[in-house]
Design a protein that fits this description.
Number of strands: 2
Order of helices and strands: HEEH
Radius of gyration: 15 Å
Structural class: mainly alpha
Shape: elongated
Oligomer: single chain
Strand content: 5-15%
Length: 73
């Protein structure tokens, strides 16, 4: 198996970083004849991807607000 992860706190564009991670994972799975899972024996689905993308979008919006708040000081 291959485990992929990302530290969103190190990215200025978390949504783009997640998209790149997902695209890379799908490409690797396709080329190596593998399957994607979101957890132990839990298959990756379109719904999984939508939920994860939604969470990262919220995170990115919160990050933008924090940056604006810090700039106000």
């Amino acid at each position: 198996g291959l485990l992929m992860f990302i530290d969103l706190s190190q990215s200025r564009k978390p949504v783009l970083a997640l998209d790149c991670l997902i695209d890379t994972a799908k490409q690797l799975a396709n080329e190596l004849g593998g399957k994607l899972f979101e957890g132990y024996n839990i298959a990756w689905t379109d719904e999984t991807e939508k939920q994860l993308s939604g969470k990262v979008e919220v995170y990115q919006k919160q990050l933008a607000v924090e940056v604006l708040d810090e700039a106000a000081y």
